Amino acid sequence: MNVTELLAGLQAQQESATIRAREIQEQIDHLTAALAEAETRLTELDIARKVIAETAPSATEPDPPQTETSTAHQAIVNAFNQHPGQAFRARELHELLAMPTDEASVNITRSRLARLLRQGFLTQPGRGRYQKRT
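Given the sequence above, the corresponding structure tokens read:
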């Protein structure tokens, strides 16, 4: 095998690896979007449950335990309520709340912040920054 054949083989392997990397990134993007949609639905269901529980309280039925998603969402809302004039980035919120700062966790918080923005609870004073609406 000469150098030209070796380089051609390496080029073919690199192109194959590039295509595979793109496919995996597309899968990650799809799954990230699906996760954000599922979390949005969970939050909507949690809010609906809370509204119904407030309007028709039942003294005989205990509240179901809060899920990790609802407690994280509540912690984010509480942070904005405690610092109404301050703008935060998703990663800053994680640091403030002692939440994991890995990229996947921060991306989930970004989707939560976008949902709170759409719901009118937050404003966006700059790209990637969120602040409680006053």
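The first helix runs from residue 3 to 55. Try to locate this feature in the token string yourself.
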